[in-house]
Amino acid sequence: MLPATRSAAQGKKKFLNEPLIKSIYTADPSAHVFNGKIYIYPSHDIDAGIPENDNGDHFAMRDYHILSMDRIGGPVTDHGVALDIKNIPWAGRQLWAPDAAYKNGTYYLYFPVKDKQDVFHIGVATSKNPAGPFKAEPKPIAGSFSIDPAVFTDTNGQSYMYFGGIWGGQLQRWAKGKYEANGSKTDLQQDNSPALSCKVVKLKANMKEFDGKVRDVIILDEHGKPLLGKDHNRRFFEGSWMHKYNGKYYFTYSTGDTHFLAYAIGDNPMGPFKYKGIFMKPVQGWTTHHSIVEFKGKWYIFYHDTELSGKTHLRNVKVTELHHNADGSIQMIETVKE
What are the site positions for Important for catalytic activity, responsible for pKa modulation of the active site Glu and correct orientation of both the proton donor and substrate (predicted)? Predict the structure, then answer.
């Protein structure tokens, strides 16, 4: 078990859900249904003794543990280390939020990690078992950058990757099409310009390469205009996800510095998407990073907070049911009450 680090103030809070596991710190849970079970691909938080800063250097993760469960509310299995940073030939540091996919007998683990020049790219590793272990490709995916890969496979079999995160995720450093090491820390001061956007790209059938051009995920406001940089409560920041419901594509994401989970709906997986609202209020911790999955006729959201530690870099994953209303909107979720 992890050491008890919660403060007395935290003890007065009422949390909506219990952590799925308490033996290690986990975050950024990407959940998928494989072979009738739920597999969760989270970050593995550790305390590396690095002071907190806006670049996120204190998020110094070094490996992945994969979790599984036969049913919601049932026992959770930790399958141990599925991929270690020392076994990724091109990796430097910071093994951040991953995702996974399956096609033609192979499971794919997508991961962001800084290369040896301290630039984030996205890599891919493969396994014949959804719990791993996974073997990394020798190089990152060509044309990839930034963080938070999320892979969605449509009903026609075409797969897409959504990725990107600003601030420590470096997305702002790619704003002009190539990496600028001394670029702005963030675009949040660009109040009257369209906000930096998440990226989307088709994947080739081999699931290891981009197929075509990386595009912006366009999020439009109620007037059909792109969200602006000053719109902190609605703009994309990081942690995107895609799910399909009643023929519509739901692009969900974190607003980052304002800590909401928001959603926008479109008719095409590559957008554009019309902003619809927020569906999860701020969790305890700096922000949350989620996934949404259908299992046995119900929808669930996996997310994280800091109930166990009270520290932003030592998080724990949770799950709760997610409800779509008759009009297609998503019901609000409050994960903590004072």
Answer: 148
